[in-house]
C-alpha cells in the first residue's frame, strides 16, 4: 500500500521535472455537492483535455482511466481527475462524455458498457458497411457490452446485447461513435466555480504540439488524493495488468509527436490550440474557395497546426501543378474545418480537433459554387481522383462515397461514408501520421501562390 | 370525326400533363453569390444552377426565376423536416432583378429560415411555380444531414 501511494506521488511530480517549468498556479478543487463517489471510466481516444472555456489544460492517451467527479453546466462534458501523468492533480479538466466508457469490474474481467445513442443503429456482422453485413436495427438506449474494438476509418466495436430485440443476434458490430456511456449524468454533482475556466497555462500557439504537456505545479486538494487512491486500487486489482498505464501510453505518444514550424503569431488568430486558416469572405488560402462560411467570418476555419501545414501543402501543390486557374472547376472548394472555441458545431461529431476538412467533389467546366453529388451531371470524377491522390500523398485519411473510385483506387484506402458522403469528401490530416508531420517539416510557402500564408 | 376528336382530346390532355410535368429547372433555379480574389482584389461572383438537395455541403442562398418564367409567376416552398416538426409553407409573389445577371429575377424568400431550421436535418421540400393560379411545375428535393 505504501509503495502504491509513493508511486502515485512520484508519478504526479515527475512531469514537472521532465518538461519545462511553468509558473506555479494554485487551483482549488470545487466542493462536491452530491455523490462523493467517483465513477471510473476509460478514454476511448487520445484526447486534449480542456477547461470550460475550451482552453487546453493537458493531454491524455487513449485507454487512460479517469475518475469522473462532476458534470459541466452544458451537461455534455464531465470533470475528470487522473492520479498520474500529465493531467495529475488537474481539477479543471473536462472531457465530452461521449469519449468515455464506464468500466465495471466483475469476477474475472473488466466490462465496458454503453447504450445505443440513436434509434435504428445498424448492427452488422462485421466492422463494415458493405452490402450483406447488415443484421438488424437496434433501438435507442439498448444496453450493450463492448467486447472488442477495431480502428478502421471509423472506430468499430463488437458488442454483446443484453436483451436483443426480436430478430437481432446477441452479438455484432456497430460504429462506436453512435454509442453513449451508460451513465446518468444527473447522478453526478454539478461542477461549479470560477477556477474551472482557468487554463492551466497559457497556450502558446507557436508550439501547438499534439500531446505536449503543459507542465506546471498544481496543489492537489483532498478530493484529488482520494480519487487517486480509488483509481490506484482499481488499477492494481488482480486484473489491473490488462489496463495500460496512462503515463506509459502518453509518454509513447510524446515520442511520436513532433513540433510544428513556428507561426507568425502576430498575423494568425489562435484559439484552443488551433490556428485560423486565412479567408476573406469566400476567398480561401492558396486560391481555394470556402463555401457556406459561418458567422462571424472565419469561425469555422480553425485547424490543428499539423493539419494547417498539410492543407497549405496540398492547396499549394494543387494550384501549382494541376489547377492554376481559379475560375476552373478544379478549384478546391472546402466547407467546415473546426470551430474556434466549440468542439461540437453544425451537427458534426468529428470536426472537433481541427484535423478534418470537408471538400466538395469537383465539377467539369468553369468553377461553380454549388453542391453536387457523385453522379451529378457536372461531377468531374477524374479531377476528384487526382485530388484524392494528392491528399493521400500529404497524409490524408479519406472518407467519400464514390464506389467506382473506391474500387478502382484501393490504394487510396478510402472509407465508405454512405449517402451522407456522396456530396463531399471528409479528409483528416492527423498528428499520428508521419506523412502529415513530414508535410509540416517540409512546407515552403510560395508567396506567388499562397500570399495569405506569408 | 370521332377519331379526330379523340386524337385532339388526347393531345390536349397530354399537353396539360406535359406542362405539369415540366422540370422546374426551366423556370426556377438556385443561386449562390460569393467573393473571389482576382489579381489581389476581392470581386463578387455568382453561380446559378439546378436546385440541389439541402444539406450542410449542398445549400444555396436562394431561388431565381428564369426568362421562361411568366412575369406574374409565384413560387411556393413547402418543407417538412423529420420527426414531429410541422410542415412549413412560404408563398413568394415578389421578385427583384438579380444584380449580377439581369436575365434572372431573385425570388424574395428566406430559404435559410425555412430549410435550415429543421432540427434533425432530415425531411424534404417541394418547390412549385405557379402562374394565373395554374401550377407550371413542382420539384421535390431532400433535406438531410451530411455532417460527420
Task: Give your account of this protein's structure.
The complex is a heterodimer of chains A (454) and B (148). Chain A has helices at 2-18, 222-235, 246-256, 305-321, 381-393, 403-408, 434-441, and strands spanning 39-43, 47-50, 56-60, 65-71, 77-81, 94-96, 100-105, 110-116, 121-124, 134-138, 143-151, 155-161, 171-175, 179-181, 270-271, 274-276, 289-290, 302-303, 333-334, 356-359, 397-399, 425-428. In chain A, helix 4 packs across helix 7. Chain A is α+β, with helices and mostly antiparallel strands. Chain B contains 2 helices and 9 strands; from the N terminus they run H-E-E-E-E-E-E-E-H-E-E. By secondary structure, chain B is of the alpha+beta class. Chain B has helices at residues 2-20, 111-115, and strands at residues 28-38, 41-49, 62-65, 74-81, 88-92, 95-97, 105-107, 123-131, 134-143. In chain B, the strands form 2 sheets. Chain B has a 5-stranded antiparallel beta sheet with strand order 2-1-3-7-6, with no helix packed on it. Chain B has a 4-stranded antiparallel beta sheet with strand order 5-4-8-9, with no helix packed on it. In chain B, strand 4 (74-81) and strand 5 (88-92) form a beta hairpin. Chains A and B meet through loops of A and strand 1 and strand 2 of B.
Amino acid at each position: 500500500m505504501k509503495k502504491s501511494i509513493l508511486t502515485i506521488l512520484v508519478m504526479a511530480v515527475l512531469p514537472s521535472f521532465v518538461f519545462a517549468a511553468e509558473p506555479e498556479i494554485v487551483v482549488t478543487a470545487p466542493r462536491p455537492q452530491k455523490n462523493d463517489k467517483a465513477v471510473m471510466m476509460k478514454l476511448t481516444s487520445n484526447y486534449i483535455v480542456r477547461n470550460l472555456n475550451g482552453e487546453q489544460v493537458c493531454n491524455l492517451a487513449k485507454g487512460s482511466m479517469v475518475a469522473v467527479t462532476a458534470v459541466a453546466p452544458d451537461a455534455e462534458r464531465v470533470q475528470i481527475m487522473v492520479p498520474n501523468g500529465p493531467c495529475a492533480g488537474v481539477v479543471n479538466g473536462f472531457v465530452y462524455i461521449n469519449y468515455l466508457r464506464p468500466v465495471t469490474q466483475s469476477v474475472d474481467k473488466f466490462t465496458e458498457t454503453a447504450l445505443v445513442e440513436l434509434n435504428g443503429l445498424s448492427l452488422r456482422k462485421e466492422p463494415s458497411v458493405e452490402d450483406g453485413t447488415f443484421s438488424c436495427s437496434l433501438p435507442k438506449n439498448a444496453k450493450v457490452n463492448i467486447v472488442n474494438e477495431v480502428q478502421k476509418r471509423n472506430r468499430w466495436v463488437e458488442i454483446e446485447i443484453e436483451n436483443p430485440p426480436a430478430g437481432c443476434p446477441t452479438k455484432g458490430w456497430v460504429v462506436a461513435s453512435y454509442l453513449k456511456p451508460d451513465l446518468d449524468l444527473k447522478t453526478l454533482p454539478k461542477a461549479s466555480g470560477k477556477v474551472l475556466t482557468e487554463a492551466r497555462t497559457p497556450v502558446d500557439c507557436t508550439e501547438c504540439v499534439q500531446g505536449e504537456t503543459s507542465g506546471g505545479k498544481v496543489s492537489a486538494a483532498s478530493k484529488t488524493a482520494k480519487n487517486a487512491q480509488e483509481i490506484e486500487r482499481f488499477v492494481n486489482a488482480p486484473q489491473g495488468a490488462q489496463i495500460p498505464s496512462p503515463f506509459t501510453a502518453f509518454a509513447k505518444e510524446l515520442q511520436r509527436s513532433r513540433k510544428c514550424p513556428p507561426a507568425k503569431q502576430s498575423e494568425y488568430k489562435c484559439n484552443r490550440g488551433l490556428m485560423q486558416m486565412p479567408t476573406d469572405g469566400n476567398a480561401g488560402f492558396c486560391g481555394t474557395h470556402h463555401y457556406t462560411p459561418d458567422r462571424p467570418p472565419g469561425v469555422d476555419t480553425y485547424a490543428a497546426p499539423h493539419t494547417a501545414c498539410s492543407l497549405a501543402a496540398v492547396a499549394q501543390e494543387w494550384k501549382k501543378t494541376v489547377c492554376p486557374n481559379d475560375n476552373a472547376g478544379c478549384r478546391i472548394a472546402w466547407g467546415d474545418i473546426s470551430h474556434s472555441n466549440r468542439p461540437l458545431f453544425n451537427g458534426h461529431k468529428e470536426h472537433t480537433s481541427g484535423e478534418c476538412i470537408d471538400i466538395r467533389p469537383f465539377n467539369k467546366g468553369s468553377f461553380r459554387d454549388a453542391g453536387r453529388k457523385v453522379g451529378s451531371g457536372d461531377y468531374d470524377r477524374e479531377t476528384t481522383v487526382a485530388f484524392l491522390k494528392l491528399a493521400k500523398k500529404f497524409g490524408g485519411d479519406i472518407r467519400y462515397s464514390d464506389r467506382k473510385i473506391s474500387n478502382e483506387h484501393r490504394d487510396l484506402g478510402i472509407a465508405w461514408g454512405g449517402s451522407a458522403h456522396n456530396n463531399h469528401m471528409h479528409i483528416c490530416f492527423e498528428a499520428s501520421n508521419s506523412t502529415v508531420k513530414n508535410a509540416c517539416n517540409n512546407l515552403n510557402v510560395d508567396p506567388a501562390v499562397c500570399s495569405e500564408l506569408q | 370525326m370521332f377519331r379526330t376528336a379523340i386524337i385532339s382530346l388526347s393531345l390536349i390532355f397530354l399537353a396539360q400533363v406535359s406542362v405539369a410535368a415540366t422540370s422546374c429547372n426551366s423556370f426556377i433555379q438556385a443561386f449562390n453569390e460569393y467573393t473571389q480574389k482576382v489579381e489581389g482584389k476581392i470581386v463578387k461572383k455568382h453561380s446559378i444552377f439546378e436546385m440541389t438537395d439541402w444539406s450542410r455541403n449542398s445549400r444555396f442562398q436562394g431561388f431565381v426565376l428564369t426568362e421562361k418564367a411568366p412575369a406574374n409567376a409565384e413560387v411556393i416552398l413547402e418543407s417538412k423536416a423529420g420527426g414531429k416538426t410541422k410542415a412549413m409553407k412560404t408563398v413568394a409573389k415578389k421578385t427583384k432583378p438579380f444584380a449580377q445577371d439581369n436575365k434572372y429575377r431573385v425570388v424574395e424568400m428566406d430559404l435559410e429560415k425555412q430549410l435550415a431550421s429543421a432540427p434533425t436535418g432530415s425531411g424534404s421540400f417541394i418547390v412549385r411555380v405557379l402562374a394565373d393560379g395554374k401550377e407550371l411545375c413542382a420539384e421535390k428535393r431532400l433535406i438531410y444531414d451530411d455532417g460527420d
